[in-house]
Write a structure and sequence with these properties.
By secondary structure, this protein is an alpha/beta fold. It has two domains: 297 residues, Mur-like, catalytic domain (UDP-N-acetylmuramoyl-L-alanine:D-glutamate ligase), CATH 3.40.1190.10; 120 residues, Protein-Tyrosine Phosphatase, Chain A. It is built from 18 helices and 17 strands. Strands 4-3-2-5-1-6-7-8 form an eight-stranded mixed beta sheet, with helices on both faces. Strand 14, helix 15 and strand 15 form a beta-alpha-beta unit. Helix 4 packs across helix 12.
Length: 430
């Protein structure tokens, strides 16, 4: 099989959440455990860090990996979904898994896959763990796919667990209250394993405290430990000073990941590093500073408040729920431009009413749909947006919408592209 044939097999022969939604979710760990056991339990052959949360888990996972790389550790990184190519999901020191390794995994284990009939995600998780074990990584940062308790990644026994925050997303599967969702994401809390809660939230903290107590897991609320002060709010380059329990520990700390919401991720990231140091990792302040200043180049992260062009200023972001858009809209308000153009598309299974309510009515909208079955049609999006006073035309593809926005935007205007991972993924120059 060629790499392209293997991708077709993975995408179309195995149920894939990114394409078909909830029907692809396997609500237990049986398949993952069966696959892993058949492969010799590769997840037990390397150290790991587990990262869950509604927003910020991808950025946090990449940031922790970048710091570990800067400190000289051979670092695996598993994230999802990918934007451009499947291999982005599985990286070691920023290098994606070779296509030939993907081909070899499927060819070697195809009979097993067809016997177990796992989902796409279950297969890719075990593929990542085998790759990390074979390449003998020092440590792997593993991002939860969806939820936590029943997520395929939850077979690992990490050194540290991080839960960034809790928001109302995937409510059809995780619950429709913050406490219910916290219970699912808190499922990554393991017996005796320290857990970091990035953001203190009144509704969710008692849930995490109860789970941590039950499992005798030391719990750290990072927001109570660290204070973050922006040194240039609204400007590119995100510079911060950091106080830990009232004492200045970082000054002029540069975050390569732009977007004001990265400030909320930082306490959890820093507390994870402290806990790793307590477990024998050699990580200096300069490693933290260097890693955070070079996340995209070290790990290959894309799509987080990423600048695509300077004139007109063109930004894309993969944020796709109400909480993410609160930060995105606030960030937009800090930028000087003559007119705002918004290229937007969403998944059809998302409740977008609360997002649409946040969006600026004075912007020019270009409603589009990504080329995946889950995408909300541009026509439906336009109708729903009109109820909130948002006016614009519809386009069958992301590229068509972006091309039209670029043709209408003046040099001092701004273009924003987002609403879904799938929308950002279809930007050609990303």
């Amino acid at each position: 099989m060629t790499y392209e044939e293997v991708l077709q097999y993975l995408y179309h022969s195995l149920p894939m959440y990114q394409r078909i939604g909830q029907a692809a979710i396997k609500k237990d760990l049986t398949n993952t455990l069966l696959l892993s056991e058949a492969l010799g339990n590769p997840h037990q052959q390397f150290k790991s860090i587990h990262v869950a949360g509604t927003n910020g888990k991808g950025s946090s996972a990449h940031s922790i990996a970048a710091i570990l790389q800067s400190a000289g550790y051979k670092t695996g990184l598993y994230t999802s979904p990918h934007l451009k190519d499947f291999t982005e999901r599985i990286r070691i020191n920023g290098e994606t898994i070779p296509p030939q390794a993907v081909v070899q995994f499927v060819a070697q284990h195809k009979a097993l896959l067809e016997h177990v009939q796992p989902s796409f995600f279950e297969t890719t998780v075990v593929m990542a763990f085998e790759h990390f074990a074979q390449e003998k990584v020092d440590v792997a940062v593993v991002e939860v796919g969806l939820g936590g308790r029943l997520d395929s990644t939850n077979i690992i026994h990490p050194l540290v667990s991080l839960i960034t925050n809790i928001g109302l997303d995937h409510t059809d599967m995780l619950g429709d209250t913050l406490a219910q969702i916290a219970s699912e994401k808190g499922g990554i809390i393991k017996e005796g394993v320290p857990v970091v809660i990035g953001e203190k939230q009144e509704e969710t903290l008692p849930v995490f405290q109860a789970l941590a107590t039950k499992r005798q897991a030391p719990l750290y609320v990072a927001q109570e430990v660290y204070e973050i002060f922006s040194e240039n709010p609204g400007q590119a380059g995100n510079r911060f000073s950091v106080k830990k329990e009232g004492v200045l520990v970082y000054e002029n700390l540069v975050l390569a990941l732009h977007g004001s919401y990265q400030q909320k991720n930082l306490p959890g990231i820093l507390q994870v590093i402290v806990l790793l140091k307590e477990q024998g990792f050699t990580i200096q302040q300069e490693h933290v500073a260097d890693g955070l200043a070079h996340v995209p180049s070290l790990t290959g992260l894309k799509g987080r408040w990423q600048q695509l062009a300077a004139s007109p200023l063109t930004i894309c972001d993969t944020g796709h729920n109400e909480e993410a858009f609160r930060y995105l809209v606030a960030q937009l308000q800090t930028i000087a431009y003559d007119r705002l153009h918004m290229v937007l598309g969403f998944s059809g299974d998302k409740d977008i009413q609360k997002v649409l309510r946040l969006l600026p009515k004075g912007a020019c909208y270009y409603f589009c749909q990504a080329q995946v079955p889950r995408a909300l049609s541009a026509g439906q999006l336009s109708q729903r947006a009109a109820a909130f006073g948002l006016a614009g035309d519809t386009y069958p593809t992301v590229e068509a919408a972006l091309a039209q926005a670029r043709s209408q935007a003046a040099p001092r205007d701004m273009i924003f592209v987002g609403g879904s991972n799938f929308v950002v993924a279809e930007i050609k120059e990303l």
